[in-house]
Amino acid sequence: MLIDCVGLGSMGLGMATSLVRAGFETRGFDPAAARVDLLTEAGGKPFAKGDTPADVVVCTVLNADQTRAALFGENGAAARLRKGGVIISCATVAPAFASEMEAEAEDIGLLYLDAPISGGAVKAAEGRLSIMASGSEAAFAAAEPALAAMAETVHRLGDRAGPGSAMKAVNQLLAGVHIAAMGEALAFGASQGLDPAQVVDVVSVSAGTSWMFENRGPHVVEGDYTPRSKVDIWLKDLGIVGEIAAASDLPVPVSANALEQFRAASAAGLGDEDDAAIAKYFARQGGVKLPGDE
To answer: How far apart are the C-alpha atoms of 284 and 234, rounded to whole Å?
Structure first.
């Protein structure tokens, strides 16, 4: 099986290297040539004109606009697929957009799997992601070997595109709220004279913990805001949650408030830092120092 991977960021590169490790011939493209070089070093290949058509395209880009351009724009990856090939689309997008992309793929004889991902860069590199997928039986069948190499768990959520993206929005609602709560809690603890490292240790084995608290809290303790997932990601993801909810006339006040905090953190210059930097934003509002502050 020949697989093309479009988008080799922190998640996409790990997924592509997992495919290489599973024995698939894997080609990659990313605007940053250095990312393609990393895949090549791992045993993959770069895209080249005149390549044999792929059986699968794994598209791991940032948002809906990039998904459309990467798949169906000029020199898009869909044109590199054989007829009957499958697109595995992994970006966080609105369900209606996923349905639109599925229809566009079907119009040119391709299969489409709405397949948002969760788990982080480490699990991507280990081939242990959670994939929230929806699509036709034919799309699942065509994608199954690649999914098995990239994921520990594949959730089958429906026979058309859309439910996969809806489920990812549920996940992102919780994840964004939990990260914002982590930042607020660590800033609050520091304001009371507590050592952030102790707060992380105690809460991580107590009822108030969450996966995001345990994962992001150590970034704050170490004063390390190297971006694994940026603050600005949440402007997009929680924005999608708000758009979906508004279309259903459902209030989502908790996630809406979290979105406002991420927007404020971005406006304060933290947008390109790790999303754990939301803690810095809260701390600065109260004149509280966190590890790494001078």
So the answer is: 20
Alpha-carbon gap, residue 64 to 210, rounded angstroms: 29
Please report which confidence band the pLDDT of residue 157 belongs to, taking 50, 70 and 90 as the band edges: very high
CATH architecture of 2-160: 3-Layer(aba) Sandwich (3.40)
What is the distance between the alpha carbons of residues 80 and 239, in angstroms, rounded to a whole number?
A: 32
Query: What is the rounded distance in angstroms from the CA atom of residue 292 to the CA atom of residue 294?
Result: 6
Q: What is the pLDDT of residues 109-155, one digit of tens each?
A: 999 999 999 998 899 999 999 999 999 999 999 999 999 999 999 99
Helices within 108-162 (DSSP H only):
120-126, 137-150
Contact 114, 67 (CB under 8 A): no
In the three-class reduction of DSSP (H, G, I as helix; E, B as strand; rest coil), residue 128 is classed as: coil
CATH of the domain spanning 165-285: 1.10.1040.10
Backbone dihedral region of 43: left (phi > 0), alpha (psi from -120 to 50 degrees) or beta? left
Q: Which residue has the tokens 């990856």?
A: 77
pTM surpassing 0.85?
A: yes
168 as an active site residue: the answer is yes
Name the catalytic one among 49, 123, 168, 230: 168
